């Protein structure tokens, strides 16, 4: 699927953040260099005063110190803003740091948060380790208005979701959740790492804040950690900005540069991974061991209609429920040659994760199934090679 908007983004991503021409030679490098600096130098005090005064207007992105970065950072922030339809993007050293930034900025002592039970696992760790200590409480729930309504409290302030959830790819009805959040004056905060702004745009579907782990598809080459928090409301922008500064978030210019380099090919990589993933779905669905596939672009996925309505493309994230013993599922993982065993996704390479049943216990979408779950990230290798690899590994697993 490719909407006109997606085509515009394809062009934008090739032209974003080009270096300025040198005023004397009239020339410039094609790629913006990594502008590394720990502070900013001013010609005179008048220039410094002007930069300080300009800080009142966040759109001017006035920098007086190295922590917030200079041209390289500004270019990547602009990329995130355009991808997500945001007025502001703030970078962090990891996706998890971006999540904690948004939570700590927007929540206060005594606040209650409704959290979709399909969210990225370490969010629960953040709650246990930090939020509880700050007097902030979370309730995990299936993310439908009917289920969420039962957990509302007078102190509920935020609805935090991830769509699709990155283990079972559970598509949420974001416009409906946005309506529910508005009705109850909750901030809707979404983890949009799956869509990374390119194929799914939560801010346009009614969310106030969108968070992306740039570590995944934006970086795209499994060589950097980075996160970003996007918003499109002047008041929320200001709160996020002030807290980002106060908490000391900062990203190395080299990692930002790598992310800029990676994002140029985001459309190509996502499209290739998505096409490969569909071919792998075709193969898997013919295997007797496969009980269910989780991939919203696959027509039999429960979330397919929502995906068709709200997304402009797909990616290489795919989970598969196997009617085999845990030992057989583990044997399959070990037998795979092309799929690396690892936790991340969104890079060029294929990865596999044996999902521990204890992790799924808290997901209503899993509903206590007894089977084994493997999560695959389908990279940009040849689909035929990946299918052959899966086939030989499945055969080894069932024979074991
Ligand atoms: C990986 C991931 C994160 C965290 O990103 P890091 O950069 O690894 O901290 C957050 N949300 C989702 C959905 C992720 O997959």
TrEMBL record:
Transmembrane segments: none
Pathway: Amino-acid biosynthesis; L-methionine biosynthesis via de novo pathway; L-homocysteine from L-cystathionine: step 1/1
Pfam families: Cys_Met_Meta_PP
Catalytic reactions of this protein: L,L-cystathionine + H2O = L-homocysteine + pyruvate + NH4(+); an S-substituted L-cysteine + H2O = a thiol + pyruvate + NH4(+)
GO molecular function ontology, one term from the record: transaminase activity
UniProt KW keywords: Aminotransferase, Lyase, Pyridoxal phosphate, Transferase
Family, similarity comment: Belongs to the trans-sulfuration enzymes family.
Protein name per UniProt: Aminotransferase class I/II-fold pyridoxal phosphate-dependent enzyme
Organism, scientific name: Alcaligenes endophyticus
């Amino acid at each position: 699927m490719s909407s006109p908007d997606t085509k515009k983004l394809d062009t934008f991503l090739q032209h974003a953040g080009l270096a300025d021409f040198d005023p004397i030679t009239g020339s410039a490098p094609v790629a913006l260099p990594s502008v590394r600096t720990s502070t900013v130098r001013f010609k005179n005090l008048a220039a410094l005063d002007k930069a300080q005064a300009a800080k009142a207007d966040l759109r001017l992105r006035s920098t007086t110190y190295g922590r917030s970065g200079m041209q390289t950072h500004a270019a990547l922030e602009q990329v995130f803003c355009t991808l997500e339809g945001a007025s502001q993007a703030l970078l962090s050293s990891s996706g998890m740091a971006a999540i904690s930034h948004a939570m700590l900025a927007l929540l206060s002592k005594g606040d209650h948060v409704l959290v979709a039970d399909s969210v990225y696992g370490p969010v629960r760790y953040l709650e246990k380790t930090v939020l509880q200590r700050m007097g902030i409480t979370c309730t995990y729930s299936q993310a439908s208005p009917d289920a969420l309504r039962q957990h509302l409290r007078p102190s509920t302030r935020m609805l935090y979701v991830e769509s699709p959830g990155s283990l079972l790819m559970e598509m949420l009805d974001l416009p409906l959740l946005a309506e529910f959040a508005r009705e109850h004056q909750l901030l809707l905060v979404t983890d949009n790492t799956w869509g990374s702004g390119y194929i799914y745009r939560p801010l346009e579907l009614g969310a106030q804040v969108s968070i992306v782990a740039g570590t995944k598809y934006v970086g795209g080459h499994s060589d950097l950690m980075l996160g970003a928090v996007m918003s499109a409301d002047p008041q929320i922008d200001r709160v996020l900005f002030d807290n980002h500064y106060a908490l000391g978030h900062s990203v190395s210019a080299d990692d930002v540069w790598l992310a800029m380099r990676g994002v140029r090919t985001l459309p190509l990589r996502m499209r290739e991974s998505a096409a490969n993933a569909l071919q792998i779905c075709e193969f898997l669905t013919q295997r007797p061991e496969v009980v269910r596939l989780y991939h919203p672009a696959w027509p039999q996925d429960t979330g397919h209609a929502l995906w068709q309505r709200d997304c402009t493309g797909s990616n290489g994230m795919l989970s598969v429920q196997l009617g085999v013993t845990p030992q057989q599922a583990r044997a399959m993982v070990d037998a795979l040659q092309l799929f690396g065993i690892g936790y991340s996704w969104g890079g060029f390479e294929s990865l596999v994760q044996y999902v521990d049943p204890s992790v799924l216990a808290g997901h209503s979408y899993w509903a206590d199934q007894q089977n084994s779950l493997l999560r695959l990230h389908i990279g940009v290798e040849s689909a035929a090679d990946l299918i052959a690899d899966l086939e030989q590994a499945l055969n080894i697993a069932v024979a074991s």
